Protein 1
Amino acid sequence: MKNIISYLQQHSGEILSDIKTLVAAESPSMNKAAVDRCGDVLRALFAARLGIDAEIDVQEHYGNHLKFTLGSGSEQTVVLGHFDTVWDEGELPMREEDGKFYGPGILDMKAGLVQSIWAARALKEHDLLAGKRIVFMCGSDEEVGSPSSSDWLSQHALGSSQVLVVEPAVAGTGALKIARKGTGQYQVAITGLAAHAGNNPEEGISAVQEMAHQVLFLHGLNAPDRGTTVNVGIAQGGNRINVVADKAVLGIDTRVTSEEEAQRIHAEITQIQPHLAGIKLEITGAQSRPPMRQSAESLVIMQRAQAMAQQIGFSVEGQSVGGGSDGNFTAALGIPTLDGLGATGAGIHARHEHIIIADIASRTALVAGLMLGETHVPG
């Protein structure tokens, strides 16, 4: 393992440079052209560092998904990640300060993708990949629930011995993610009847008033004792201050720890009824990701990770988190899955999103060791 660590430390400057290159290729999820340009940059990095190109899963509305295969052995490890971000182009500047590098999507999760490329490169340079096949699955729509990539990911992950998810480590502790909540997204479109707010308000039916009733109902579905959260993150209605609003819309995020709760929440949301006479509701959405639970097989990977980290020179724990990832899908298939293997840092989806530069080499070495599926790495 010392040879791998030394190699990665020697190339840490190049790793950081590659991270900056990928972060500079901004890729907001709903901008297909920008996401595809970022995908081209990612392909160039794979070509330069590993000499491989992508199998492209072409999409009409989202960015194209990319699959890279290294090696031809019978034992397959899937490295899972995404290259879309929550940031609009030009919204968040890149900067380096106090041992941290800031930028849009750098922690979630472009640094992790680059680190996984260099982890494989280190193994390749040391002739440690005989009999192995490493498949990098890079989706383009994870930040919006993976609507076009979930089936694609599941199809190509089947039969794998393990899935390593290079999403960021837990902020503050650097812990790996051994379990995640299932997630859902819903929209409630509310239609009322417009009227003049001064002359004849009694003739109107306020969609905004209905919206207020529905927000209270939806937040009443929260069940902290069961690990269930329901959040109305978007509430928009009306367009003129002197008009009884005839339109409103709610955007709802749900998080659950069990399939039973997923079914309960789905039924509650999809069967909501109007409070005001004359209101029409249109409800769309679903539970998009199943809960990720730690299996006995996934625990084995976690234990290997802890042993590997000790060899490298640090310690790491496992933690359950509320956010979902594409690892939820592979875990639900029964494939041993370990998440949070990407960069360390803080501020995902926040303006202070950053990575810890000093941890790049050690975290990359951890992924390299796990790619081999062994507790001890030669050298």
Protein 2
Amino acid sequence: MEPKIGIVICGLQNSRQFVSNAYIQSVRYSKGLPVVLPLVRSDHLLEEYIALCDGFLFCGGEDITPLLFGQEPKDGIGRTDITLDLFQIRLMKKILKTTKPVFSICRGMQIFNVACGGTICQDTMLQSGNILNHMQHSDTKSDVSHRITTRRGSHLKRCIGSCLYVNSFHHQVIETIGQGLTACAHASDKTVEALELSEHPFALGVQWHPECMYRTSSEMRELFSEFIFHCAS
């Protein structure tokens, strides 16, 4: 039987909850059963979500409310939705208390970090030094933007190798890393590009969008396949 993958909604728009199709397709093509998880305000239903699904995918989306990681808004902050933020952080914390696999992408990785007590730099323009432009403007989202290097001994390196070119669609970056997390990939400007949770079978976050590169990159297909494999185990 295919493992049931809870795909947490990307966001809310005009009283609608949505998930981009690429996430659903990437799970399906990797032989998982996609189950879209809408925003709810019930702890009981969150527990039902966790009981129902074999693994969880947290998707990209808008910015996280800075108050939730101990900051106030700064220049460069984008759109936020505190109701969505609280739902996703609560769900992430509950999932991480289990051994069920979780794969988090872009905003999802930042939710992963905040749920573990980490913080976010609200805009790359607030950083000093020679910072890359991490918000690419390309004809297609599968186009690559910059190189990442993975950490030796990491689960991520075993999946995709020591270095790789990835796409990039974010203006916020990891500031302080959450408790128990390890940075397992960096860009050339030292931006954290991936996080793993120590002592967990599979809890991984990536800053790029592997679902958009699924058709063009064997490494991204391997990443999703590894996630689904752990969900089925």
Protein 3
Amino acid sequence: MAFEKSVALKDCLYSYEVNPNVKKFTLKDNTFAETKVGNFELTRLLEEIPNSGQGFLLKIIFNKDLSGFKINITDKSGLRLVNIFKSEDQKIIQQKFYFLMDSLVEREIFIKTEQ
């Protein structure tokens, strides 16, 4: 998956795009880790029950010049993409995803647009 300026996950209520004001230190302050190739990566386990170890892996990666990013939600192994938005059974997981993304919007990392 290539880096993009705007990402709309399937069945998600919102699309997200890179905020032009985003800075590298802002990403680091928000627990993005710099990879060996210079990209910035945030990994979170979206769990229905906290500290259960059961959930879906959210990975957000910015390229090194902060012009593009990608978002993946996978199974815990990180190998298979998962759509957490297609089922009402995943309501708590969806709320945790939106909460995390809203915090990144507040910190001027993303701009959120309703689909």
Protein 4
Amino acid sequence: MSLPLLNAEQFEELIYDKGESCLVIFSRKSCHVCQGVVPILEDLKPQFEGRFGFYYVDVEEEKALYQRFSLKGVPQILFFKNGEYQGKLAGAVEEEDVEERITDVLNSES
């Protein structure tokens, strides 16, 4: 997988300290739906290089982070900008939906 794996400390630094515009997929290795979604994100990543980050959190290794956002099930793709939560996409997603959400986040005022 080419998405950087984040632990809770790295998540805090990236999202809240640096305020990076990014998405974080909350997933687990054994999830079949996740295995279909991650390649979509990997395909989109080069298109937004330098403008929007793509990251991965393993929910089995980072349970507290997963619970902090009251997430139910995986995969969950959370979007952030300037340290603020911008919404999420859940379950099997289409590339167009993810791309549209990224564009919305990049163009938002927050």
